[in-house]
UniProtKB/TrEMBL annotation:
This is Short-chain dehydrogenase/reductase SDR. Belongs to the short-chain dehydrogenases/reductases (SDR) family. InterPro entries: NAD(P)-bd_dom_sf, SDR_fam, Sec_Metab_Biosynth_SDR. The keyword Oxidoreductase applies. Keywords: NADP, Oxidoreductase.
Amino acid sequence: MQDLFNLSGKVAIVTGTSRGLGQYFARALAKAGADLVITSRELSRLTEFKQEIESLGRKALAVQLDVLSQSDIDNMVQMTIKEYGKIDILVNNAGLNIRKPSTEVTQQDWD
């Protein structure tokens, strides 16, 4: 049964890992054996969490990422491939919102 959740050799990107659910998701993946890419808009907010993941015996690459920025996304993918050679898992946890009533959100807002 333990092998059912064995992620040894897998690489997981978890967005929005500076706090809350992102950290819980990343921690669970690390405990299952995955190496991680952890992200936040503020890189300094990842320092302690990166150390925590590494203390579990896993690798952790901290990357500054604004999920609304295509160049940030491209950079994160390039850094991940350079560091690990692959991406196996993506957890799109980072939150974002459009500050207007849902009845006023346009298709352009979604794009």
